[in-house]
Automatic annotation (TrEMBL):
<dbReference type="Pfam" id="PF00378">
    <property type="entry name" value="ECH_1"/>
</dbReference>
<comment type="similarity">
    <text>Belongs to the enoyl-CoA hydratase/isomerase family.</text>
</comment>
<protein>
    <recommendedName>
        <fullName>Enoyl-CoA hydratase domain-containing protein 3, mitochondrial</fullName>
    </recommendedName>
</protein>
<dbReference type="InterPro" id="IPR052377">
    <property type="entry name" value="Mitochondrial_ECH-domain"/>
</dbReference>
<dbReference type="InterPro" id="IPR001753">
    <property type="entry name" value="Enoyl-CoA_hydra/iso"/>
</dbReference>
<keyword id="KW-0443">Lipid metabolism</keyword>
<comment type="function">
    <text>May play a role in fatty acid biosynthesis and insulin sensitivity.</text>
</comment>
<dbReference type="GO" id="GO:0006631">
    <property type="term" value="P:fatty acid metabolic process"/>
</dbReference>
<dbReference type="GO" id="GO:0016836">
    <property type="term" value="F:hydro-lyase activity"/>
</dbReference>
<keyword id="KW-0809">Transit peptide</keyword>
<keyword id="KW-0276">Fatty acid metabolism</keyword>
<dbReference type="InterPro" id="IPR014748">
    <property type="entry name" value="Enoyl-CoA_hydra_C"/>
</dbReference>
<dbReference type="InterPro" id="IPR029045">
    <property type="entry name" value="ClpP/crotonase-like_dom_sf"/>
</dbReference>
Amino acid sequence: MSDALVTCDVTERIAVLTLNRPGALNALSDAVLAALKDRLTAIAGDDTVKVVVIRGAGKVFCAGHDLKEMQAGRAAADGGAAYFADLFTRCGAVMQLIPRMPQPVIAQVHGIATAAGCQLVAACDMAVAAEDARFGVNGVNIGLFCSTPMVALSRNVPRKQAFEMLTTGEFIPAARAREIGLVNRIASPNRLEAETMALAQTVAGKLGVAVRIGKRAFHEQALMPLDQAYDYTRDVMVENMLERDTNEGITAFIEKRKPDWA
């Protein structure tokens, strides 16, 4: 594997991003966050990529922020206040970039996903986890409430379940993560990559413009009151219907043939 902190491999229109800092449990250092942002930004502008998978090298998916790097920030005259604010702003920007990307993003989780690592899973559109994977927002165990990870987590799972995870600092197994909606699918460890890629390939096989339109609308309407959401998605449906390949897809279905998509 490349020495890059986040590697990128594209196969059959699926981009696989690998957090590549296994010796530090793929902690989200300043450099890793910058590399991940650069990779995601580049892919967002690449129309040839239809799905993105994020995974971790080594034993775990991601162990959260780099605590040693954070502690070093305390050496500043302000005790680290400016550095901490900048760090959490940069991390938040990466987490917000994921739902704004035109391509669906799938987390492939093994080992542990903890604190900002769990936040990264929650920020992705979908997640597939190994049966023995564990998830936690356990900053409270060392005196740091996971307030920024809480944002993505509480938008994925029921409030009481999120609050329990945040206040107890306990890990939950993959099966429980699926029950509460943090994970879509679980697989045996030796099938994790295959199951993740099967999901990615299914999505990549759909009409790209429809998925891009739909992902944008999915996240936008979730922030709106009910009546506004229906008005907005009405216009989105019109936009989608007017696409050349949507017309072809419907016509092909009626005529019982495969669509001739550009």
